[in-house]
Amino acid sequence: MGGFTLSYKKEKEEIIYWAKFLNKRGLVTARSGNVSYRVTEDKILITTHDSYLGQLEEEDIVLSDLVGNILTGKGELTSEKNLHLAVYKKFENIKVTLHSHSPYTTAFFHYFDELEIFSFEARFYLGKIKVVSQELPTIINLEPVIKNLEASNVVVLKDHGVVAVGENFKAAFSLIELLEEQARVNFLIKSVKLPERQITRAEEKQDIDLPKYRLLSKEHISKLVGLINDDSQAQELGKKYDMTCSLAVKNQDSGEAVCFYYEKGKITKTDNNQNTEFLIVGKEDILRKIFNREIDPFVASTQGKVKTKGDFAKLSRWYPVLVRTFKLWEKAPVK
Q1: Stated pTM of the model
Q2: What digits encode the pLDDT tens for the residues 7-37?
Q3: Residue 264, domain extent
Q4: 236 counts as catalytic
Q5: Is residue 202 part of a domain?
Q6: Of these residues, 11, 41, 57, 80, which one is catalytic?
Q7: What are the start-end ranges of the H helices in the chain?
Q8: What gap in Å lies between CA 89 and CA 31, rounded to an integer?
Q9: Which helix H or strand E contains 246, and what residues bound it?
Q10: 128 vs 248: CA distance, rounded Å
Q11: 113 and 173, same domain (yes or no)
């Protein structure tokens, strides 16, 4: 094959398309923002420093290894290169990283601490938005950004912009666009002078005396069943929406699984069956975060942090029941 080198022309064209779309949607302007695309396990295409995403050309994209060495192309890597490299080193299933300077999102989190999610679709895909403080024009402290990306594929950089990652461009872009929409909706609702709400994040009340359980242990399962079956609100909702199904959760690392059998919201039995109507499979660290409510269960599914089997669109019919269920999980934290 001699000195043949892949040009990655198709991949560069895809980067150019989405970079220009970011600009078209007003999510980046002038020389702000940057884009990268994993093309092999250890190589990425990434935009160069000071490139204009709205007028991006092939020469503005270089091929780099995960150390930051330019393999083909000219120029310097984007000033946010360390962010992109850290993402691909940490998350093997991530192929795309987008960094936007979304105006409504940036403005909202300058004044407010917590975004209220008003649409059902946004709740499924966004969950509780994570915010990382920024003191410099570029991201120097990567640890909190990467840590928060473990819980959600979209993270806000306070007074800076947004970082979104995904298995493809559409997945990452849609998170940035949906977040910008919800920030805009929040501004509209706050502008009509509704009865005042608390605009700063209330301190989360946690009972430090709550015992912690080993994930999916007999004690953990028994506690979850008791919390749901003994809660009057959960039972009323279960009857109202006729939540009758079998739902299993499997720890991908240990192979442990538990199936919950629901009858109008009441859990009638549990076992280790995995051939169920609904199955959720995830790595132990992700499941632990889900049960500790560090990751929204719906978001874990829509963002691909867990694998799912079954008609999960059907679960939306039981949304109010599940919201109450997930709230109760906070009383059974795992180690």
Answers
A1: 0.81
A2: 899 999 999 999 999 999 999 999 899 999 9
A3: 218-329
A4: no
A5: no
A6: 80
A7: 9-24, 81-90, 103-111, 120-125, 143-151, 169-191, 218-229, 232-240, 284-291, 297-302, 319-329
A8: 26
A9: strand 245-251
A10: 24
A11: yes
